Fold this protein.
Amino acid sequence: MSFKSIIQDMRGEFGSISRKGFEVKFNYGLRSRSHRVVQDSSMVVDALRQSCWANMPPELLRDVLMRIEASESTWPPRKNVVACAGVCRSWREITKEIVKTPELSGKLTFPISLKQPGPRGSLLQCFIKRNRSNQTYHLYLGLNQASTDDGKFLLAARKCRRPTCTDYIISLNADDVSKGSTTYIGKLRSNFLGTKFTVYDAQPPNAGARISKSRSTRRLGSRQVSPRVPAGNYPVAHISYELNVLGSRGPRRMQCVMDAIPANAIEPGGVAPTQTEFVLSNVDSFPSFTFFRSKSNRTESLHSGPLSGPKDEMLVLKNKAPRWHEQLQCWCLNFNGRVTVASVKNFQLVASAENGVAGQEHENVILQFGKVGKDVFTMDYQYPISAFQAFAICLSSFDTKIACE
């Protein structure tokens, strides 16, 4: 049997199993939605394990999986790569070896990819859809140039107003956006005025990371008091919005201190923290994601060292200064066609000059966000920040900032 026919047969098997999973939803229609998700996922994985493909010789299996990974480079066909990782432990380990991080491949495959730095040298194009009625925000991977088309769902956030602050809860599951969910991965919290924000990760972004209290306090205001960090919430970024000195004609001025990313990460040969697995106390509580996670809670999966010394200064991002357009009589930024509607929310982030960068590195856009429709916004990011960090930063732009406008 040729490799081509083997791959075609495997895809047919995946399609058959997917259809069976779809039919199961009707059989369990009287049960809760969360129970159906768990039940359907378990039946799909069990069916894959019992198929004839689960006992292939390792050499042949590696060749087949490498061909599938290379051919299924975009979504939705890339779901076949994810299905391969769910067959059994040996399939999962080989697939994890083959699938590279977004930094190297420029692709988002498993949920852990959302916590890893984006590609070097190119922006990964995504978009955000806002639902005003229920205060939710959904992040999608753009599948084509038309940003209004349905894309690959990545993350969801829900706005929660508190007496003294506002929280944006971020989850992997669009139907369960709560801090108590097993798919909760972090949150964004604002101060009362909506001028200062903190991004919290549900797990440590790097082994032994230490947050420099004096550095964060100096940047975000001398009156700031470092709050007690709740269990499972690790601050990874601080965002501040300053008074808009350009008045109503200019964009907001913002600055992001990336607590978990060293400033030298953007230099040639620099390294940013890269998580390789979700570290959870009970990974079996959400079976539909079991083939994305490992049962190991070892910190070796977090490939980075602590930010504890002068050589490990934190990366600082600031919004790129706009230029005055004489013909249009307005301040403009070049979004290369990715932004079509003027808005005070639009911004581009570059490395701050105080990081010691100059030339092209200083002009290189790391994150850009802008409006293209009534409730549709593009979000493009690249190394050294992750999709999760980029999404959280963009969520801060949605919050009302009376003092900055």
